[in-house]
Amino acid sequence: MQRKLRIGKLTYCALLVTSVCLLLTMSSLQAQDFPTKQINLVIPFGPGGGSDLAARTFVHLSTEVFGQPMILQYKPGGGGAIGTEFVAQAKPDGYTLLFGHTSCNTILPLAEGRSKGIDDLATVCRINVENNIYFAQANAPFKTIKEMIAWAKANPGKLSFGNVGVWSVSDFEWKWLEDKAGIKTRIVPYNGGGDALAGLLGGHVQVVMMTSSSGYPHMRAGKLRPLAICGPYPKKNPEIPSMKEEGFDTGLEGYWKGVLAPKGTPRPIIEKLAAGFKKMIENKQAIDSFAKLDNEFNYQGPDEFYKYWKEDTRVYKEMVRLLKK
């Protein structure tokens, strides 16, 4: 009887090992053929924002790198939660990807639990980390963060801030600044950086936090005035003070953008995608296009990016806890 049980267990183990080997072989074969159709890269905000502008610098190289086009799909709403959920529920075959970022994939899951974070998606690669910048209208009655705070104190409730999404990086840091500086402002919600930028340019709000890639072209055109840079990364314009130099520093990292896939996407496909994205953003044309937005790529592969995101999640978890007190 015991002998039969042992034989049964051995047979079961052999079948299990065989099944695993077959699955791994199938995944490898899938990756060899991948991709055989267009790849969809979901932007969880509307067009015109920092994520859209960044993605446009390299996605057109997809046909050259992958042999298939990469199409941008815009799914705004819920501070990025709608687009994120769409990708999380997609078939894990590598054809539906998310251009994720700090706001909707680190902060929002921690603050409200209504978007997908590090436990719900697979890391493909980090594309870059970028400083955020506070921009004001060119004719605003203040030129620096300190002057803005003084104006807000002299005009309670009149300073208007364009928020790119609830519990976004901009929402997070602005509320921190309100508390730190002892001011109360009027916060106007928008469905992403593109909409907030339009609101600022149209005079509907006075201040917006956005990426350099979104704001610098309008700064050069004389339409916007930079107040201060948020984040530790080297400044492309040394004449713009940092929040740390102004005496208001959260100690937080910059604003990351990275490619994420549905959980369960086969590792060989993840690696092929990661290698392809690396090749795209190492292309001189992409580098030059991104440089025109005063930006640069900071690539990390799947494992490095996961470790980075894990630490990012840890830091923001503590900040969310403090702001929710």
Describe, in plain words, how this protein is organized in 3D.
About 2% of the residues have low confidence. 46% of the residues lie in helices and 18% in strands. It has two domains: 170 residues, Bordetella uptake gene, domain 1 (D-Maltodextrin-Binding Protein, domain 2, 3-Layer(aba) Sandwich), CATH 3.40.190; 99 residues, Periplasmic binding protein-like II (D-Maltodextrin-Binding Protein, domain 2). Strands 2-1-3-10-4 form a five-stranded mixed beta sheet, with helices on both faces. A five-stranded mixed beta sheet has the order 7-6-8-5-9, sandwiched between helices. The longest helix is centred in the N-terminal third of the chain and has 32 residues. It has twelve helices and ten strands. The chain is globular and about 80 Å long. With 325 residues, the protein is an alpha/beta fold.
Distinctive features:
325 residues; D-Maltodextrin-Binding Protein, domain 2; five-stranded mixed beta sheet; 10 strands
SSE ordering:
HEHHEHEHEEHEHEHEHEEHHH
Mean pLDDT: 87
* Backbone structural class: alpha/beta
Secondary structure: number of strands:
10
End-to-end separation in angstroms reads 63 Å
Number of helices: 12
Poorly predicted spans: 20-25
- What is the CATH first-level class name of the largest domain? Alpha Beta
Can you give the helix content as a percent range?
Answer: 40-55%
Going by CATH, the homologous superfamily of the largest domain would be: Bordetella uptake gene, domain 1
CATH architecture of the largest domain: 3-Layer(aba) Sandwich
Radius of gyration, whole Å: 23 Å
What is the fold-level CATH name, i.e. the topology of the largest domain?
D-Maltodextrin-Binding Protein, domain 2
* Spatial strand order of the main sheet: 2-1-3-10-4
Strand content: 15-25%
**Which term fits the overall shape?**
globular
Number of domains: 2
Largest sheet: 5 strands, mixed
